[in-house]
Amino acid sequence: MWESGYIGILGVVFIKYEAGAELASSSKSILAYIRAGSADEAPRALSSLARHANPAIRRRLAENPNTAQEILQLLAGDESAEVRAGLAWNPSVSEAVLERLCADEDVNVRLALTDNHCLPRAILMRLSADENPYVQHHAWRALEVAELESLLRVESFTVQHGLNAKLGDLMVAAGLVSAVAMRDYLDTARVRRLPLGHVLIRDGNMSKVGVAKALKLQSAVRHSQLTVDAAVAQLKGRS
């Protein structure tokens, strides 16, 4: 079963597969689904599921890092686009398979790839030149997120959790984002379990530099190096 949902500020309809929706009620199907996602199952045992009649089980197999490379290659040519899209976040997928998926005839498979900023830069760069403008846009956003993460790592930035000086509150106070839009971004971050900064780049079209600056100012406030008012002033460009 495919479920429509909106992704990004462009409002492109992205087809999201509800993995368990088509699982049969039989105990055999449920057991097969569990096995397909197991980290303890032997690779040879997993391979028997690659031609299972249920695409939900094949997709689960595609998502499993324990799946053998030859099976991942087989699934990259699966007749179901939802199964092929399941390979997008599997860290065990080879670059050769990713290259193949970049040329997939189904735009939703290519869009699924752009959702993963951890892909090799060469793959995201190829997607940024995709014939579909939505794939292009989301690939560039993924590259921005990857560069934000790299920038923060270089500066040894660590996230400080707390209730004061929330990132969203600072950005709204600085007039960078409306309160209504920020509520939507926070909802997206919660539902998709993403850092707010990633959502602001992907869906809010903010730059990595702007998000990095806001995060550093938030950290400075939480370490009592700046007041909230001073941080907001700097975000407004009145440093």
Structural write-up:
The chain has 239 residues and is mainly α. It folds into 2 domains: 153 residues, no CATH class; 69 residues. It is built from 14 helices and 2 strands. A two-stranded antiparallel sheet has the order 1-2. Strand 1 and strand 2 form a beta hairpin.
> How many individual domains?
2
As an assembly, this protein is: single chain
Task: Write the H/E string, N to C.
Answer: EEHHHHHHHHHHHHHH
Kindly report how far apart the N and C termini lie: 52 Å
Give the CA-based shape.
elongated
Key phrases:
239 residues, mainly alpha, 2 strands, 14 helices
Write the layout of secondary structure elements.
Layout: E1 2-7, E2 12-17, H1 27-36, H2 43-47, H3 55-63, H4 69-75, H5 81-85, H6 95-102, H7 107-114, H8 121-127, H9 133-154, H10 167-173, H11 179-192, H12 196-202, H13 208-222, H14 228-235
